[in-house]
Amino acid sequence: MVKTIAVVSGKGGTGKTSLTASFAALAAKDVVLADCDVDAANLFLLARPTAQESHPFYGGQIPVRQAERCTGCGACRDACRFQALEEDLSWDSFSCEGCGVCRWVCPQGAISMEKELSGQWHLSETAYGTMVHARLEPGRANSGKLVTRVRQAAGELALEERVSTLLVDGPPGMGCPVIASVTGVTGALVVTEPTRAALHDLTRILDLLRQLGVKAALVINRWDVHEDNCRAAEKLSRDRGTPVLGRIPYHRDFPRAMSRGLPVVEHNQGTLYRNIRDVWLRVQEYF
Amino acid sequence: MIISLASGKGGTGKTTIAVNLALALALSTQVQLVDADVEEPNAHVFLSPVFSRTHEVNLLIPRIRKASCNLCGMCQRVCSFGAMAVLGDRALVLPELCHGCGGCSLLCPQQAIEEAPRLLGLVQQGKAHGLDFLMGTLKVGRALAPPIIERIKELVLPGMEVIVDCSPGSSCSMVSAVRGSDLCLLVVEPSPFGLHDLDLAYRVTRKLGLSAGLIINRQEMKYSPLEEYAEEKGLPILARFPYDRQMATLSAQGRLPYLDLPPWREKFTLLAQRLLQMKEEVRERGRRPW
Q: pTM score, two decimals?
């Protein structure tokens, strides 16, 4: 496996994608990118991709009934644990988890399970290296499975292309897509911000990473919005044995670069550039 | 009226707006604040509720009685989630992958599978600043948020205005949280990322037949693609909040701009009034689009 670094946060909106794009730009093509935020994939907005390959993603199954065989006995509804069958035995597609129990319990064998097309994943060339990214159909479940698919494809690509690093842009939160993004990685960089809400979430994401046995490090974005909270985040992190690899200030060049569709290090060539470059160097060294 | 706050993109200000809006609404009526972002709940950071009840949310996970198991592999066949593994000499459960569908236990020909509860998370009930407060927390390391969100919804008190703070994203957690609300407020920042993700969240509201309105947050200048998008989709802009460093610092401290900054008290009061005025309209429209 190529060295794989996942960029996660717990709290949303801390700057994961912005930083991942800048790291990619600094890596000078010696990187493969995986956008694992399949619910809301944004990395492509900064990486100027040309889509090369697209693949369908079948996340789960949906039940289909053969009306002629159905006697209306309701065994399916009685067995469903997700309240996915209405009074009239029609399916609620949002509640249905595709478990298939209805199919097994139907005494008439009237139900079959069919693959559900729930998204797409793509392989693109970008300005910074090959990127694997995906789009889950809005409202669909099994995002963790799609993340796993993205990681698998990106991992294979990284080996083929003999790059030094696979950079994973992770989703916010702590649930199955995050777990799928960090399982088995070389390390996780946690991007936080100096707010009380983020401090609360930081404890949780660090606990998750420790539980999963993933080596972690911290970077504090927009650190100067609140210096006391920044220090609190650093202390919290160090108390958990997680080193702090740097602080990045709030800077107008972030939104400016985003409007231009560029990673901030392509837009800013001054102090901010050097700041982010130093963090990237430390990330490479630590993991 | 149940109002949910969603966004697509993380960090747009859902929680900040939810808590301050709830306080503004509470001037006129009884309000319940529900934190359905069970992976990273934050409303309590701002409101410091006093909790009176805690409910455990469990998933029923299979347990194999080895003595009765003949390694036939039926459980592995039945399981759609890869949570059952029948290897040469043993059958294993992978609890992290289990969705609690009960299929394996139901269908084991040897009746060798029983189910035992596994803690998924907690739902806590309490009060804060005169609001009723409900929050769910996913246990660290668990993968499935929706069962906790469904439990939270069961505990919502009837006959009050309800504000539901939801998770970012557009998949099952967000759907679970917004579903059943009367109106979904989409909180967006005027930026390319914000707009891209707003579209994903908006599509969910369309699929659910849920009325939606926009709150543009942290605006310094109008972002024309967003304005055009709102116009094209017929999404009413219910509030436009400016970027405000003071507001940001206060919120960073976990304090409440509604209480400490008069201009923001006014903004939230206006939004609350507007929403209350819309109440009849929202109810009548039911699940039809604007």
A: 0.95
